[in-house]
Each structure stands twice: as C-alpha cells, then as structure tokens.
User: What shape does this take?
Amino acid sequence: MAADFDEPVFDEDFVRSAVFTEPSARERARPPSRRERRRSRRAARRAGGRRPRREPTHRTAVLQVAGGVLVLLAISFALWWWNSAPRDERPARPVGPTITHSPAPAPTPTAPDEEAPDKDAPPTEIPEV
Assistant: This one.
C-alpha cells in the first residue's frame, strides 16, 4: 500500500530501530570476550554450519586439472578398446565370396573308346599352338 504524500515514509519507530552506532577505537582494539565468541559460533552454526570457502590453492587446482585429464584419457582408452577388433587366441577364418546359385556338376570324363571317336563330342586333348 503506497503512502500518501502528506505522511512521512518512515515513522519514528522505524528510524529509532535503524540507528547504528559504530564501536569506538578502544572497543575495536580489544579482542572479543568469551561470551561474544560463543555467541558468534552459535550464530554461525544456526546459519548452516558452513565456513566460508577459501580459494583453492595452486597445487589443488593443478591436481584437479591433472585428475580431469586422466579421467578423460581413461574414458577414451576404454572406448577405443571397446570398438577395436576382438582379441581371440586363434584368428577368425576369412570370409570368402558366397555363391547363390551353384551350377550342376560337370560330368566326369570317362576313358574314350578308341574304336570310334564321336564326331559331336568336344576334343579331350588341347591342341598345341
């Protein structure tokens, strides 16, 4: 709800509760008391119990990069091994061409009769040239 123009935006209670006093130099110089330390630890635990994260050191960053590279190398080697040829002890037989239609076997030649050579039969001897 918007405030009217004649009303002040902040009332006196709000201004009184918003007053902030800065500690003096003497108060800043002395270490916090046990009570204050306990109170701040308790507040930190209630806030989630997490300490603020520090920046990683150079050594940690280098180890993380090296670990990432090793993981990528292991994955690529595993994929290469998986996709490479099988490693059997005995090699596989080579696959030859297959014939879909096999012709009828040729008749086996018999010993020709020496009495009468057949005129229609093809010559059994190959002439020399």
Observations:
- Residues 40 and 59 are 32 Å apart (CA to CA).
